[in-house]
Amino acid sequence: MAFECRDGDDMDGLVKRRRESEYFTIVMHHGGFMVNSYGFKYTGKEVSFIDTCHVDNMSMLEMYDIVEELGYSGLWHLFWKQSGHKFTVKPLRTDCDIISMLEDMPRNRHIHLYLEENEANFSNETTETTQTRYHNATETHETVITEIENDVSEEEGSVHEVYVGVDFERDFNGLNNRDEGNINASLNDENETDELESLHTETESDFESDSDGRGKHRCPEFNDETDMENPQFKVGMIFGDKLKFKEAVRQYGIKNRVNIRFKRTNSVRVHVVCKEGCPWYIWTSRVDLKDETNTSWQIKSYVGDHNCLMGFKNKNATYKWMSKTYLEKFRANPQYPITALRQNVLEDHVYKVSLSKCLRAKHLALDMVLGSHKGQYSKIYDYLGEIRSFNPGSTTILKLDNRVFERMYICLLACKEGFKGCRPIISIDGCHLKGYYGGTLLAVVGIDGNDNIYPITYSVVESENESSWTWFLLLLATDLEIETSHNITFMSDKQKGLVEAMMHVLPNAEHTTCVRHLYSNFKNNAQFKGKNLKDALWKAARATYKKEFEYAMDELKALSKPAFDWLNAKGPVKWSKSHFSPRRNQTCFSAIYDSGSRDKPILTLMEMIRTKIMENIAKKKEVANKYTGSLCPRIQKKIELAIQQSTRYC
Q: Which of 63, 280, 389, 520 could bridge across to 274 with cysteines, CB 3.0–4.6 Å?
């Protein structure tokens, strides 16, 4: 810090020019020490003026620089003269003392400081002299001595007498050692009062005891965990960094329903104000500008009164704040609706927020709960590696296109081994993903011995096309060890590119149509609606012999000739039991895993499917272990039903 030593001749002119500014002048009395002569006096030999001192930049580090430039490098003590208290002086040892000194700024903006070198700096000073100087110091905590009328002692070697409100034996025993960095102690002044909020308000949070049991003040510190819910500010309060201070200010504005805004913010200081005309404001700045490792910020000035009205809208109630505040609700229910979020914000904080803001908050909260869509793609290698590690024998394939994700295939070992006990019927389906990057989920299931769906494999590809279906079917045939396709039947919805891929990979396999998908197209695409048409279609699909199928189709033709023509063009050999070959399964079903996970990030999607498969297999195993029948439950019921129906014709 640059400063200028000058005489006191032009001091009055300087006061007039800077009376209303943020600068002040330090009047440094040095070259002397405190003596006991009917009280404590300061023998000031020299006086220096340090001009253009800014209130926001002043700290103990600046004081160290000032004292060093004055030529003092050993141990020393500083005192500042308190205005309005009969010239009582107080020790200056910490940044908290600096702030108290600045709060007590005189009207002429001149602060008098008194520098005393420690007795250890005087090699020729005897112990007896030192004891005489501080004799009976402990008996006087506020010794009263008058000061000469002039603010500045201009005669060299004159005695500058002041009140000293300190205990020298207690407060200055080896303190202010710059090398040891003892800057955390401050004066315990039990009689100090102030109309404004100050650093030395004696509360439990600001008062502690040192190792000798003596009380001392410290600057209050903001606790992120306990104070963030309802921030309360004080002059001198220390924050971990600038971001935590700004977060606390925003939370204060939300909690108190006031529109706080940052008027000025940079790397050195931050100025926060309320609405125009409201007296509330905060000035804060870095604690130590020279130490880059010290990121702490401290409140230098604060007025906590508001005269503005509360409102129903607040710019500080951002979607980021909403996602963080209601994160646990999204964690408990990822389908938490945005209308419920808006209502909760209104009830809890009396704020009206838009649905678009609620939607952004939901997306951000789900990213924090489930992981971001983009971030999970970088972890696919690790995820597939974990599957192979904990489930040896499983097939995991990842295909990239210029180091960009294109396709992923997973077939668990248990699913591959379990298919050996299933019927030679495979159902294939696909659906579009609703996540940020889209894509298509492909799934394959079979039918176990109890006529239940048995999961086999699943995959994520860029889209449904001949290339992706060919890649998927080749991997499927390898995992299921399909050497010849004569004895296996595939069922699907004839998705785009699937028929061509099937003819290329499994040319001899039978390929049928799922009646559920057929009816969906019959109703939605062809616009053939109504219960009578639906019943006629299913009656034709369930017909077990050709004559029964013809009766069902005649009934459909009587209801709607266009519907009859549309269905007849599909070819009954693909969807009606009456035209199936003996080795073809008689059940049509949808293959896709409807797990409600299509809008999730890629790894969350794959993990939800894997978890559902494991739970499904585990439940079936538990039921099978308790079952004592010779046939599977569903098969047993079908046989009993067939027996009952056969008795009608006896």
A: 280
CA 282 to CA 279: how far, in whole Å?
10
Q: What is the pLDDT confidence band of residue 107, given thresholds at 50, 70 and 90?
A: confident
Tokens for 210, please give them. Answer: 């040192």
365 and 413 part of one domain: no
| Cβ atoms 220, 99 nearer than 8 A | no
Strand partners, 299: 284
Q: Same structural domain for residues 248 and 273?
A: yes
CATH at residue 107: 3.10.20.90
Q: Is residue 641 included in any domain, yes or no?
A: no
Check whether residue 324 and residue 456 sit in a common domain.
Answer: no
Tell me: the pLDDT tens digits for 391-424? 999 999 999 988 899 999 999 999 999 998 888 8
Q: In the chain, what's the furthest Cα-to-Cα distance?
A: 137
| Residue 602 placed within a domain | no
0.90 exceeded by pTM: no
Instruction: Using DSSP bridges, classify how beta strands 261-265 and 46-54 pair: parallel, antiparallel or unpaired.
Output: unpaired
pLDDT at 168 exceeding the cut of 60: no
User: What are residue 505's phi and psi, to 5 degrees?
Assistant: -90, -45
Distance, CA of 464 to CA of 152 (rounded, Å): 90
CA nearest neighbour of 186 among 216, 214, 161, 209: 216
Between CA 594 and CA 297 the distance in angstroms is 53
Is 309 a domain residue?
no
Report percent pLDDT > 70 for the chain: 76
pLDDT score recorded for residue 139: 33
- Domain range for 528: 393-579
Whether residue 342 lies inside any domain: the answer is yes
281 by Cβ neighbours in 10 Å (0-12 / 13-18 / 19+) ranks as middle
How many domains does the chain fold into?
4
What the block records as the tokens of 84 is 């309005």
Same domain (yes/no): 423, 521: yes
DSSP code of residue 521: I
Q: Are 116 and 33 in contact (CB under 8 A)?
A: yes
Q: What pLDDT is attached to residue 100? A: 85
Q: Are residues 362 and 464 in the same domain?
A: no
289: left (phi over 0), alpha (psi -120 to 50) or beta: alpha
> Do 555 and 539 form a contact (C-beta atoms < 8 A)?
yes
> Per-residue b/e over 593-603, b at no fewer than 16 CB within 10 Å?
beeebbbbbbb
Question: Other CB atoms closer than 10 Å to residue 448's CB: what's the count?
Answer: 17
Other C-beta atoms within 10 Å of 230: how many? 10
Does 125 share its domain with 61?
Answer: yes
SS3 content of the chain, % helix, strand, coil (to 5): 40, 20, 45
Based on the domain organization, do 284 and 323 belong to the same domain? no
Find the mean pLDDT for residues 584-594.
Answer: 49
Residue with tokens 């499904």: 616
Q: Which two tokens stand for residue 25?
A: 């002048």
Query: Any bridge partners for residue 440, and if so which?
Result: 432, 461
Q: What pLDDT sits at residue 36?
A: 54
